[in-house]
Amino acid sequence: MDFNFGMPTLRRNRFEAVTGTIVDMVPTRIGGRRANGCIIFVTLEDTDGNTVNFVMTPSTFVVDFETLSVGMNCTFWYAADAPAPLIYPPQYNAVAAAQVKNGRFVNVGYYNTSMVNEDQTLQLNLDGSVDVRTTNNQYFQGSPANHNLVVVYSTSTRSIPAQTTPGTVYVLCD
């Protein structure tokens, strides 16, 4: 028997975010690979003084292709369903990163065919002015629906879900 009562089922957001100040960035290695500068170990401290470590690989997408550095206030996203070592401070593989800037909002998540994210808090209005790109800054040739997206926008409505016409959408191709 289905007790859904017509309510939409909410999926748990696949991506989680941590915002804080970068306090350290050092080249590192994973497994038997040597530290050749391609993998960076980032230590982030949030406003409560908690420390979280992120591993940035060449596949980590950085919004606007900015160069991150110590002292920057940034947000890092990681896959919540990915394996992570049970250590303190926690350590995650960074999927995306963005410097915090006034007037710029960034959302990372899965968007369905209606262009609504999986926690149903943001809906995208994609008109011809929206720049849709891949993570290597090429124009995306398909539909961004049913993909993991990095959405960069400046304003949204106060509706539920909030609606926005983003400035740029980056498709996290699998």
Overview of the molecule:
The protein has two domains: 15-99, Nucleic acid-binding proteins (OB fold (Dihydrolipoamide Acetyltransferase, E2P), Beta Barrel); 105-171, no CATH class. Helices cover 0% and strands 41% of the residues. The protein has no helices and twelve strands. It has strands at residues 15-27, 40-45, 51-56, 61-62, 73-79, 91-99, 105-111, 122-124, 131-134, 147-153, 162-164, 168-171. The strands form three sheets. It has a five-stranded mixed β-barrel. A four-stranded mixed sheet has the order 7-10-12-9, with no helix packed on it. Strands 8-11 form a two-stranded parallel sheet. The radius of gyration is 17 Å and the shape is globular.
Q: Notable features of this structure?
A:
174 residues; mainly beta; OB fold (Dihydrolipoamide Acetyltransferase, E2P); five-stranded mixed β-barrel; four-stranded mixed sheet
What is this entry, summarized?
The chain is an all-beta fold and 174 residues long.
Topology (SSEs and partners):
Elements: E1 15-27, E2 40-45, E3 51-56, E4 61-62, E5 73-79, E6 91-99, E7 105-111, E8 122-124, E9 131-134, E10 147-153, E11 162-164, E12 168-171
